[in-house]
Amino acid sequence: MKIVYRTTIMFALSIITTICFGQEDKIAKHQEKVAIAKQKVEAAEKLISSADSIVSAGESMVSEAENELKVLAQQKKTIEREHFNAQKTLDKQLRSKDPEEAKQAKEDLKRIENQNKEAVKEWNNSYKNSIKQYDTGKKTIQKGKENLKKAKAKVKEAEERLKEAEKNLEQAKIAEQQRLLEQEKKLEQEANKDQTP
């Protein structure tokens, strides 16, 4: 009777050990899936911060370009005013009866026209650069917003997968606990059967 009892206990223990290791493998796999899902959530959240920084950089570019455009508008008014005032005084000298003064006024007018052309050319280059920076900033903002939208979708998807993985892990743990309880009950029942004459 003792031999049968020992054999039954040994057999039951080997079954429990096999089941436990099998369940531990399943739980380990579920834990690994949870860890991977957490990494994916973190990676997706990094994409959000990256997209936010792209949007911020674009907004900074746009703001800087807008400030430059305001300064350029004032510069243009100044250039036009200075040219008008210089031309106005030289126009009076051109009408002078003194030929020497008229000749000098004509040369000064040419020089002022050339200076004005250079100033306008510089202003146009600065204006084009500011507009280019503004457009680049707007495109950067748009790109950042698109990336942000994609990143938020990835975070949502990754969080759903994480919840699913955590749910599966909990279910596996519960299933293992139930199996262990059932095995303990079976062992107790078998032990009770073997002990009863």
Number of domains: 1
Tally of helical runs: 2
Got a strand count?
0
Q: Whole-Å distance between the termini?
A: 10 Å
- The CATH architecture classification is Orthogonal Bundle
In the CATH scheme, the class would be Mainly Alpha
Q: Spans with pLDDT under 50 lasting ≥5 residues?
A: none
Helix coverage percent of residues? Answer: over 70%
Helix/sheet category? mainly alpha
Gross geometry: rod-shaped
**Order of SSEs, N→C?**
HH
Task: Please state the average pLDDT score.
Answer: 85
Please outline the major beta sheet: none
* Strand percent estimate: under 5%
User: Under CATH, the topology is which?
Assistant: Helix Hairpins
Radius of gyration, in Å, reads 42 Å
Structure explained in plain terms:
With 197 residues, the chain is mainly α. The chain has one domain (2-195): Helix Hairpins (Orthogonal Bundle). The protein is 96% helix and 0% strand. The protein has helices spanning 2-94, 99-195. The longest helix has 97 residues, at 99-195. The termini are close together.
Characterize this entry briefly.
With 197 residues, this protein is mainly alpha-helical. It has 2 helices and no strands.
Label this structure with key terms.
Helix Hairpins, mainly alpha, 0% strand
What is the fold's blueprint, element by element?
Layout: H1 2-94, H2 99-195
Helix pairs in contact: 1-2
